[in-house]
Structures are given as structure tokens and as C-alpha cells.
Amino acid sequence: GGSWRPAGGSGGGGGSGQWGAASARSNGYVNGKGTGAVDGHVQFGEPGRRRIAVRSLAVGEVVDVFHRYAQDPNGYFMVQHGSSGFLHPSIGLTDGWTTARVNEAWDVRNFDPNEYKTWVEIQWMHPLWYNRRGIRLDTNNPSMITQRVLPEQINIRNPSSEALRQPDLTLIHIRWGGEQPVNPVTEGAGGWGQIGATPSDNYINGLEDHIFAALGPTYEIISCFIQGSDELTKISPPLLRHLMRGKHLGALYFMWPISFQDGHAFPAYVDRSRLFELMVHMESTGIPTRFPHQSHLYKIFASKEWAAQMCLHPLLRTPLTTMVGRQAIANDPNKAAQHAIDALSALSKSRAAWNGAMGIAENRAGSPVQKGVSKLGWSWEAMDVRAWTNHQQLASALAELGEQPGSYVDQVFVQEWVDFDVEMRHFIVEPDLSRPETLAPKKIIHTVFKSKEHGAFRNFDRYDRAKCLQMCFNNDDAAQADAERQAQELIVRWLEWVQAQTHELPIFMRFDIMARRVSPGKAFIMTGELTELGGCFLGWPEGPRTVFSAMVRSFFRDPIPGAA
Fold it and tell me: SS3 of 155, please?
């Protein structure tokens, strides 16, 4: 049998480097199981040598094989009954052990992992396979079930086979299964990079590559493919819990919750109320959320209401923010706009008073607010942010944001304008307030918006520290260092605040800090955004490997009571 063990301890190294994220094919998905060799894959570095449990295989020999969904560009998965595949939501085993028959003789002495033709050719024996669109695989056609896999995924069928052991981990993946695939948006400075957007096949398959590299064939993944918000509530958490066999459990939700009805043209954007109903039901069934965050914390990040709640706190340096109710926008957007500006001006006076009471200098002492931005919570990829410089522009922005087709938006944020030269994006991984060294960023990316289209922010340039010093701080190294020092202090305060929102800190946050040089050696900073797990890596090459490793470690936080 043999046993797989991760190289380098818990969390492992990078992804497999052998297979990766096949982009979602067009809506047909009608081909067979595929070659196993996937183009356009995402590599995170070699994970180290894995143990091969077989030395030779004969034609016709039946073996245990660990199936990996990321290896199949046509996306077929195993079900026990046809209705699990052809009716949505489609639910099946995407990663896990099954049986196959060896299709050609194989000897380890001829194996080269870099030569695909030296991999083991097998024919899958499981009788029912479907893809996310409900199309059944023709298992009577040998060419449709023939695939090459690496020998690390094969065990001889005997009592010591790993296939017979209880999985160390069972994960539930809630994924998009609609006709239109999720665009990974890999290109451009503002794109998601090679790993892709979080609901995309690029991202999910890249994560699954990393899980296999870290854990080997000791886990299983049950995937639920949905094609609309209503299908989220058709998933039965108690039934899923019954199917999960692992010593540790977790659920990952690769969706973007929004405040709109279905019927829009954006795949994986789902009604927030339906998603959170599912998340809470899953959590109450004993299936913890491992991505992005447990439901109550995810609401705090996704709603963005923290900005209005904390904008008067002197130590958290948040732009003044008020929330304009939907009813005010519907009745009279011009009146709503004027009242919002008045509210910001009142908040400006309050901030000056609060700062004065704490002995904090405030150089904007109660000044009226003349310009700002309006934006939505439950919004993604900077889609719903509008700048305004007068009452009329704000009124138009409120109507435009609040009255979009299918909108269930209950309020629109209106914020003061903050002048800044650069946004410093701090990536914090596995913070622990008792260990100060963990509170330092693993990476800082510097970005500068370079264009606005119709008042909306769309494109930005990305700089390293040296370029940022030149372009944003006038080569004033002391001022840049001052901004970095203040930002680190601010981030620690925010993490202390987050501790009040959750008893266990999230494994990842990105803090976007706006900074501006104000005088020689001095900088001014403000909080721009608190970003959840799943936020864009902004071109950080080591980001996926670093964060995925932390995610894998988080899967093992809470073993099932009584698990062996």
C-alpha cells in the first residue's frame, strides 16, 4: 500500500506543478474525461517528492485511484445517482478515491513525471459521471473514460490501501455551475493575476492543486455546483454532513454575495440572503466555514458597514462615512444628497471634537465636506464606486447606485474625499496578537489609480517600494518610512478591533492604507479598505502559495470530537 506524507511539515510547499487550473470550457462540456495534461495551468513551485506506492502494473489490473477534478479539463465528477448530476444543484465527489482498470502495462523504471506518456493510463470504472451542466459521461465508450494519471495517485487494491482509510479531511466546495463560466480576469495591473478571481476555475483548481501537494490523497472534496441563487437553499447541510467522512470538516464558498436579484450577466454573483442562509445552516450542522470567513465575520467585511460605524474613532483613521437609506433615494435623490453632505459636515465637527477630547491634533478642524465618493456594500471588483464633487453629482450617483435593475440595495455609503498619493496594500497572514512578529505584513503592494471613467475608479498602476518612493514620496525616504510606521500601528489597532468581532482572528486580511507626503519626513494616512480572505493578490507572486498554505493549516483547527 504505502503512505503519502507531506514534505516540509504542515501546510506543505507549493502546488503540484503538474496539473492546474483549466479554464472553464464553453457551455458544452461534452467531451470525455480528458487527457489529464491541462494547458494554462497555475504553478506554485514543486512540492517535493511524493511516495509512489506501486512499482509495476499489468494490463487489466484493477487499482485504487485518487481522482482529481482539477486534472480533467472537461470537468466530470462522480455521483451515486443520476439525479445528483442532471438536476441542479449538481452534487458529487470531485476529489477522492475510486477504482480503475489499468489500460497498458506500466513500470516505474520508465516513469518520468515530466513526460506525460510515461504516466499510468487507466480506464475509470465508476459508472456515473456528470459535469456541472448536467451532462452524463458515456462510460460505454472506452475513449471517454481513458485518462493518464500520476502513479502517486494509485494504490494496489489490498487491505492496506489508503483508499480504505478514513480521510483526514472532507471539504464541501460551493461552486458556480451556470452556463456562463466565471472570467478569471487574469490580465492587467488591476487583474487577479494568473491565479484568477476567487469564484473562477483558475483559483479553485489552483487551491486544489495546493491541497493535494500539501496533503496527498488523504482528503476528499464534495462539490455543489449551482446556477442561480435559489439553488443555494436547495442544498441540504444535514445530508452533506452525513456524507462527509473526514476527521476534519470544512466548507468553502466560491461565490460573490450581492444585493440584487438574479437575472444579471455576472456568473457567481448571488443573492446575499440566500448564501448566508446556507452558510448559517451549514455552520449550525457542524460544518465550519473555511473560506472566506465564518458567516458573521464575512458579513462585516462584505457589507462595509464598519466604515460608518468606526469613522469617528480617532485611532482607526477611517474616512467620514454616512449611510443614505434607500427610501430617501427613492423619494427624492436631490434632497437625500443634500442631507448626506450635511451629515458629513456634522460628522467633521464631531471628529474634531472627539480628537480634541483625546488630545489628537486635527488639521481639518470641523471643515465642511465638499466632495467625496459614494459606493455600495456587497459589491465586488470596484464596480459600484462613484466620485462626486457637488450636490448634483452626488444625487445622480445615489440614484445610479441605488436604482439599478434588480436592486435590493437598502442603503448607499457616502464618504468624504481623502487626498492621497498611494494606496499601500498590506497582506497580513495568520496574525496572532500575542506574537507581534505575526502582525507584520507578508507583502506590501503600492498602487495608484490612474483613471476614472464616468466617476468610477477602474485602472491603477502598481509600484514596488523603490518606484513608490520616487513617484509618490518625492524621494523622501523618511516620509515613506513614516507612512509605513503609521500604517503598521493602524493595522495592529484594526486587528485588535477585529478580535472583538470574532473570538479567533481570521487567517488572512488585506489592509489598504491611503498615504500622502505632507512635509519633509512626514506622511498622512487613512484607512482605505479592510479586505477579506479571497481578496485580490494584486500581482504578488508568492501570494497564492503563502495564503493557500495558511488555509490548509486552518482546515485542521477543529477535529471532530471523538475522531480517530
Answer: strand
Block residue for cell numbers 479567533? 504
Contact 529, 300 (CB under 8 A): no
Query: What's the pLDDT score for residue 380?
Result: 82
Distance CA 527, CA 509 (A): 13
> Between vectors from CA 526 to CA 522 and to CA 528, what angle results, nearest 5°?
140
Closest CA to 441 of 522, 512, 501: 512
Are 511 and 554 in contact by the 8 Å Cβ rule? The answer is: no
Question: Distance between CA 152 and CA 63 in Å, rounded?
Answer: 12
pLDDT of residue 13 exceeding 70, the answer is no
DSSP codes, 373-384: EEE-SS--TTTT
Mean per-residue pLDDT, 271-277: 97
Are 204 and 39 spatial neighbours (Cβ–Cβ below 8 Å)?
Answer: no
| Single-letter amino acid, residue 281 | H
Which of the four pLDDT bands, split at 50, 70 and 90, describes residue 562?
Answer: low
Q: Which amino acid is at 47?
A: P
Q: What is the pLDDT of residues 529-548, one digit of tens each?
A: 999 999 999 989 999 999 99
Task: State mean pLDDT over 311-325.
Answer: 96
Nearest one of 289, 288, 164, 296 to 217, comparing CA atoms: 164
Compute φ and ψ for 484, nearest 5 degrees: -65, -40
**Separation in Å, CA 40 to CA 31, 179, 209, 534:** 18, 21, 14, 21
What is the reported pTM?
Answer: 0.90
Instruction: Note whether 462 and 484 are within 8 A (CB).
Output: no
Dmax (CA) for the chain in angstroms is 82
Give how far Cα 368 sits from Cα of 10, 42, 148, 389, Å.
54, 50, 68, 13
Cα angle: 167, vertex 173, 175; to 5 degrees: 155
